[in-house]
Backbone:
């Protein structure tokens, strides 16, 4: 029991926790970049394909999304510590043979799917990260804000009103209770964020591993 309790509170001192939060934040930024890149490259290439200029644009986009997928593999391995095995395709002689090899390689199309779904996954990760931390830290700050309001540094009255018009924080004691609840929620949310980052990493592994 003590070991489990120690593990529960130790999450705030573990580097893995902050690496997970960094990965979730990075997923949001990269997800936006991947989506813009793919939509721009594919739409431009398909739109210009009748002029033959679209073909090199599409091939360049294909090569770049394979590179980006490889970057995602390295990112998951470096930040989350999840190994993703990868066997590169056999080198072919001639440009057309290489193009055929890329088109026939399942990794090419799995990479495309992965980079597209990275956009909604990144948004979800960002929302969970920001919402959970903001909520917990807001509760933790309740005693400080209540005290600053009482001594006149902050103007107005500090009170959290429920739907029944009941003030949850009407004394310094209740503000401390709310703060303690916020501390426990912070530890819970940190575990959730660790789990979310690991699930995201395992999803990357399941799609991009070959």
Residues:
């Amino acid at each position: 029991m003590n070991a489990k309790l120690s593990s529960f509170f130790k999450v705030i001192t573990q580097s893995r926790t902050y690496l997970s939060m960094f990965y979730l934040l990075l997923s949001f930024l990269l997800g936006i970049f991947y989506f813009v890149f793919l939509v721009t490259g594919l739409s431009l290439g398909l739109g210009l394909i009748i002029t033959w200029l679209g073909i090199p644009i599409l091939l360049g986009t294909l090569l770049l999304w394979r590179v980006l997928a490889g970057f995602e593999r390295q990112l998951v391995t470096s930040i989350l510590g999840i190994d993703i095995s990868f066997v590169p395709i056999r080198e072919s002689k001639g440009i057309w043979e290489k193009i055929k090899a890329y088109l026939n390689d399942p990794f090419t199309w799995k990479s495309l799917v992965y980079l597209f779904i990275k956009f909604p996954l990144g948004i979800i990760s960002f929302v969970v990260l920001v919402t959970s931390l903001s909520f917990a830290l807001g509760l933790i700050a309740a005693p400080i804000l209540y005290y600053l309001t009482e001594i006149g540094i902050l103007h107005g009255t500090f009170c959290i009103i429920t739907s029944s018009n009941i003030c949850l924080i009407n004394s310094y004691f209740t503000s401390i209770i709310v703060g303690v609840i916020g501390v426990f929620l912070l530890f819970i949310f940190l575990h959730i964020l660790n789990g979310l980052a690991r699930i995201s990493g395992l999803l990357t592994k399941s799609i991009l591993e070959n």
About this structure: The chain has one domain: 2-208.
